[in-house]
Design a protein that fits this description.
Blueprint: E1 6-15, E2 19-22, E3 26-32, H1 47-57, E4 77-86, E5 89-96, E6 104-108, E7 121-123, H2 128-136, E8 142-144, E9 150-152, H3 155-158, E10 163-164, H4 166-169, H5 181-191, H6 197-228, H7 234-264, H8 269-331, H9 347-352, H10 379-487, H11 492-508, E11 517-519, E12 526-528, E13 531-532, H12 538-558, E14 566-570, H13 579-597, E15 612-617, E16 628-632
Parallel strand pairs: 3-15, 3-16, 10-14, 14-15
Antiparallel strand pairs: 1-2, 1-4, 4-5, 5-6, 6-7, 8-9, 11-12, 12-13
Helix pairs in contact: 6-10, 7-10, 8-10, 11-12
């Protein structure tokens, strides 16, 4: 098995401004040139923008929209399409350049205009790490932090080793990666200097550590509970429980004895007769009260019905009287003039009514307004009905009042007998009842004490179980840590191969006064001439850092690692790097490609490179010129 292959084939940005770059295998140089005599004219051309776009396409999270690198031009760009080849599979990643948290879309195959309309496969930004790891065939691993929590080695974190952003990468190896030990985790995983088995054990140890911490906290809380109650041992708690159990049982036995005495007590005949007589009378009065309540309710209902009838008849009487009065009034009216047109009514018109015709309209009279209908009731008949209904209502009301009075007397008698029965009963059983109440209270108190004692026993038993569980977890953790310690032993041979590769790169770039190179087996960071690489001087620190990443790439080409055979380098001229060393570094990049110009790779015997380097630079050299795929300037920027 070889190291994973990752090739960036094409990068397309759409919108009001955009770009379309095609990349090759091997070396790809994007150079910026100055216009005029301004030495800063090579800035802001788009070199770092290219690296930002690559990182965005490969799934890096943006910190915030305000801090987004392309925030000033966010309204002018729309989407990014990054066509990659991962272990031989071509995939086009589509990401929005406006909605930074929008889902990415993965299209199988090469980029083509209109591809955004294809269905593709959606993936959240959080899931993009897993997607890239699967595409490259890298295992998903994590490392344990000091508190036992698990920190995954995500693809954006691993990407820091082979996509070098100028702002983050040249101040130190894996600059800004925190904590410092995480750098060794990343380098150890990618180079496989650290065995893969270590990461599984790290997760196991972390989980056990968290379980132990949670159990210790719970154990401490229970112990504090016992201390506040003055409890020192399990034996003491069990002794309290046994004492409470015996006391509760004794109280229950005493209560049962009083209950038996009450049940078996002998009453005199006179006492039994008085109580039985009172009980019978009370039951009879209850029955009589129920009958009287039913009768009173029926009479009340009948009273309401009669009251409604009397009201209805009174209304009908008023209507009949109004009808008779209106007939009399209308019959007495003699019209001399028409009430509408105010013209005189002639004798001829009056004579018409003698023959059954209307004196006004001359139509036959079938029904006049002053004729009382035949079906209209007479006031005399209504008066008779009204008198009869009122008489019945008075009788019903009187009977209902009698029933209510009888019911009150019955209830009063019932209440009196109930009080008397209660007094008779209390006089007989009160002493024993008082004793029974006292015994019941004693039983309740003893059972409450027993319940508290049982709760303490359960808590002590749970405490002992927690201690046993804690002991088991600590044994498992010790065993896992022993396995982790054995699995964490770095591969010495790989460290030596990384040291050799790093030394070769430093020689190739003609690192000044190079005498000795070592790789620390714990941090996996280099020492140069007996000092940490960061202490070689500001001018050479960036050179030492870039050379280390070039050594990682060289190692991945010759050995089976998890480091993709790709490197993106964003303008490596940092600090006070002199032009001579800068030129040697650029020539080293060109030397990587030279063997393929002759038709063969001396390492793997292939004509076409199986690796890729994308280099952005403001300085060039004759050896680098053939590999320049794009030239940028203030007049020809990347996004245009």
């Amino acid at each position: 098995m070889k190291s994973p292959s990752l090739i960036i084939r094409r990068l397309v940005v759409t919108g009001a401004i955009g770009c379309d770059l095609v990349f090759n295998r091997g070396l790809n140089v994007i150079r910026s040139i100055k216009t005029g005599h301004d030495p800063k004219a090579t800035n802001k051309c788009g070199k770092t923008s290219l690296v930002e776009l690559i990182q965005h396409g490969l799934g890096r999270h943006a910190k915030s929209r305000r801090e987004w690198y392309f925030a000033p031009i966010a309204d002018e760009i729309e989407k990014l399409f990054l066509e990659i080849e991962a272990n031989g599979r071509v995939v086009t990643i589509e990401r929005s350049l406006r909605q930074l948290t929008a889902q990415a879309k993965l299209h199988d195959g090469v980029f083509a205009p209109g591809i955004e309309g294809d269905a593709g496969t959606l993936a959240s930004i959080d899931d993009m790490s897993d997607v890239m790891l699967r595409l490259l065939g890298l295992p998903k691993v994590a490392v344990k932090q000091h508190d036992g929590t698990i920190a995954p080695l995500t693809f954006p974190l691993l990407m820091r080793a082979f996509v070098l952003h100028q702002e983050d990468s040249f101040g130190s190896i894996l600059g800004k990666v925190q904590p410092e030990g995480r750098k060794a985790d990343v380098v150890g995983f990618l180079t496989r200097i650290t065995p893969v088995e270590r990461y599984t054990l790290e997760e196991t140890v972390g989980q056990l550590q968290q379980q132990i911490s949670e159990l210790e906290a719970a154990l401490h809380a229970v112990q504090e509970f016992f201390v506040r109650r003055g409890i020192k041992s399990l034996l003491e708690v069990k002794a309290r429980h046994d004492h409470a159990l015996k006391a509760a049982e004794s109280a229950r036995n005493s209560q049962r004895q009083v209950q038996e005495r009450i049940k078996s007590a002998v009453r005199s005949e006179a006492e039994r007769g008085r109580i039985d007589t009172l009980t019978s009378e009370i039951l009879a009065l209850k029955t009589k009260s129920a009958d009287l309540e039913q009768q009173a309710a029926n009479l009340k209902s009948e009273q309401s019905r009669l009251e409604e009838l009397v009201a209805s008849l009174a209304t009908d009487r008023q209507k009949a009287l109004r009808l008779r009065t209106s007939q009399q009034i209308l019959n007495s009216v003699q019209f001399e003039i028409c009430p509408r047109c105010l013209l005189d009514i002639t004798d001829e018109m009056k004579a018409r009514e003698n023959t059954g015709r209307c004196g006004l309209c001359n139509r036959p009279i079938r029904l006049a307004s002053d004729v009382v209908p035949r079906t209209a009731p007479r006031p005399e008949d209504i008066d008779m009905q009204l008198d009869e209904a009122r008489s019945i209502l008075r009788d019903v009301t009187r009977e209902a009042d009698q029933k209510q009075a009888e019911l009150r007397m019955t209830k009063s008698r019932h209440d009196h007998l109930s009080i008397k029965l209660d007094a008779e009963t209390r006089a007989y059983v009160s002493p024993e009842v008082d004793v029974l109440v006292a015994r019941s209270q004693d039983v309740a108190d003893k059972e409450s004490e027993l319940a508290r004692a049982e709760q303490l026993v359960q808590q002590v038993e749970a405490l002992e179980a927690m201690r046993r569980e804690l002991t088991d977890l600590e044994i498992k953790k010790d065993q896992a840590e022993a396995g982790l310690k054995a699995a964490s032993v770095p591969d010495r041979q790989r460290i030596e191969e990384l040291r050799t590769a790093y030394q070769a790169v430093l020689h190739a770039v003609r690192f000044p006064d190079l005498h000795q190179v070592e790789i620390d087996s714990n941090s996996l960071l280099p020492n140069i001439n007996g000092h940490l690489y960061m202490h070689v001087g500001t001018a050479l620190k960036g050179l030492a850092t870039v050379s280390y990443h070039l050594a990682l790439l060289d190692l991945s080409r010759g050995l089976e690692t998890f480091f993709p055979t790709m490197l993106v380098v964003d303008s490596p001229a940092v600090g006070d790097l002199n032009n001579e060393n800068h030129d040697h570094l650029l020539n080293y990049f060109a030397d990587l490609q030279k063997p393929y110009e002759e038709g063969i790779d001396p390492k793997i015997g292939r004509v076409e490179p199986d690796w890729q380097v994308i280099l952005t630079t403001r300085r060039s050299s004759p050896a680098l010129e053939p590999y320049v795929i794009e030239t940028l300037s203030s007049a020809k920027m990347l996004l245009r």
